[in-house]
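Support request from a user on the community tier.

User writes: "When I paste my structure tokens into the form, the page sometimes reloads and wipes my input. The last time it worked, I copied everything first. Here is what I submitted, just in case something in the input itself triggers the reload:"
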């Protein structure tokens, strides 16, 4: 669940310099925030020239692309993958390269191109996606990739996919691909400004460990910022993909990290983990941590997200499980095995937890104040259809109901009472009832705003 700050900043441009994208509306949508930040930095410092503000990273599909793969980058595989008649104009085809390599072949405007076959977000097959003009959109969550270069052009994915060499001999379509790129199915573009020999003494501090923070730091480097970038995160783990914790509740934080540690090292991003910011002084341009240490900055971005909401009812205490961090998800997955579980809340968090536990817990019951699950976000008809799918998996519902009291004995939850007076036993109670925004005390605040409009 993202805060409004995160939702607005998460749409920063990715991977390649936005001024080289083929789509003008995409340029306008993706570049406005980052260039506004850099313009602000330019206006407040004499240490950086105009040409340094230009993106020093490579252009689309350039030679300096660094794959997220190991050594042996010069090892290639070349194979006949299809006949020209198998890929009509305006169509896509997933093909095999070598023994187990896969690629997506695209025929558009009389030209054949080949790119990675899976979305870098959750691995959806792009062959089942939607082919637009020069781009393919993921069928699951809408991430968008350039069909010529593999560059990512829309979220929620963070990495680009590889592009491969294509040639036609007679009726045969031949693709030549880097073996490591085929295996990794993603690549990282490292900016030429990602140098240890920085020429800029300014410090850009980012508070928060979510995708908005990671993409902001990456974009600053790609667009030519050569000062220090410090990313401060309250948690002690690498920034991770928070929505995944309800889908893979047994996975450790390292398995759902947004980027590997090497990514931050390559871009000279100073990760300060386990550092909770409690105060911001915009007059002194300093932040204070929970351990009373301070840090000065020239520019600051706050993208801290939210924390789980609680309920003002008797018995709602530490015995009730909330979900925001991987460790909490791991605990829930462990203690719910074979137990009677009650989930309070019938929107995304609650229902995704119920789905995960449906074949692991002995009983899963969901309590919601609406008439059907997801009613407020998806409407009654879709909510009812989803309710039926859950019920087919054995999940029980108590709808148009709240919770009057949670009953515990000797420090353990034993039951739950509804407003109607009905009481039923349970071993585990999990609450997914919304969030509060995380608040940081700010003094003498001055806000530099950047407006981003999204079209298409």
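"...and here is what came back when it finally went through:"
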């Amino acid at each position: 669940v993202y805060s409004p700050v995160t939702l607005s900043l998460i749409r920063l441009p990715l991977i390649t310099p936005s001024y080289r994208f083929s789509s003008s509306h995409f340029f306008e949508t993706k570049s406005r925030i980052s260039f506004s930040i850099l313009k602000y930095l330019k206006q407040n410092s004499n240490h950086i020239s105009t040409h340094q503000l230009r993106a020093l990273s490579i252009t689309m599909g350039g030679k300096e692309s660094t794959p997220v793969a190991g050594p042996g980058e010069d090892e290639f595989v070349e194979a006949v993958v299809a006949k020209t008649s198998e890929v009509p104009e305006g169509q896509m085809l997933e093909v095999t390269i070598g023994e187990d390599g896969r690629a997506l072949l695209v025929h558009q405007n009389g030209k054949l191109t080949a790119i990675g076959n899976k979305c870098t977000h959750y691995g959806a097959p792009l062959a089942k996606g939607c082919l637009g003009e020069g781009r393919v959109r993921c069928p699951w969550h809408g991430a968008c990739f350039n069909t010529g270069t593999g560059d990512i052009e829309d979220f929620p994915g963070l990495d680009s996919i590889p592009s491969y060499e294509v040639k036609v001999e007679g009726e045969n379509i031949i693709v030549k691909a880097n073996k490591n790129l085929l295996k990794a199915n993603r690549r990282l573009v490292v900016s030429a400004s990602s140098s240890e020999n920085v020429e800029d003494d300014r410090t850009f501090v980012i508070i928060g460990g979510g995708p908005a923070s990671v993409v902001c730091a990456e974009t600053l480097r790609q667009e030519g910022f050569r000062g220090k970038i410090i990313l401060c995160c309250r948690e002690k783990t690498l920034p991770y993909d928070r929505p995944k914790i309800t889908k893979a509740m047994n996975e450790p934080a390292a398995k759902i990290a947004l980027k590997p540690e090497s990514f931050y090292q390559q871009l000279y991003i100073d990760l300060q983990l386990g550092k909770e910011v409690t105060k911001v002084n915009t007059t002194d341009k300093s932040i204070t941590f929970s351990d009373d240490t301070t840090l000065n900055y020239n520019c600051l971005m706050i993208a801290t997200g939210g924390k789980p909401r609680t309920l003002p009812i008797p018995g709602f205490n530490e015995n009730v499980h909330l979900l925001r961090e991987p460790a909490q998800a791991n605990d829930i997955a462990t203690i719910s095995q074979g137990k009677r579980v009650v989930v309070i809340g019938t929107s995304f968090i609650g229902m995704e937890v119920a789905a995960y536990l449906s074949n692991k817990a002995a009983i899963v019951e969901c309590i919601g104040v609406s008439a059907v699950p997801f009613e407020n976000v998806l409407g009654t008809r879709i909510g009812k259809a989803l309710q039926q799918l859950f019920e087919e998996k054995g999940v029980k519902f108590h709808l148009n109901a709240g919770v009057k009291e949670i009953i515990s004995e000797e420090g353990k939850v034993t039951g739950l009472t509804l407003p109607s007076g009905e009481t039923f036993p349970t071993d585990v109670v999990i609450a997914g009832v919304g969030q509060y925004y995380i608040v940081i005390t700010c003094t003498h605040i001055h806000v530099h705003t950047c407006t981003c409009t999204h079209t298409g």
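Agent notes: The reload is a front-end session timeout and is unrelated to the input. The chain has ten helices and 30 strands. The first strand starts at residue 65 and ends at 67. Escalated to web team.
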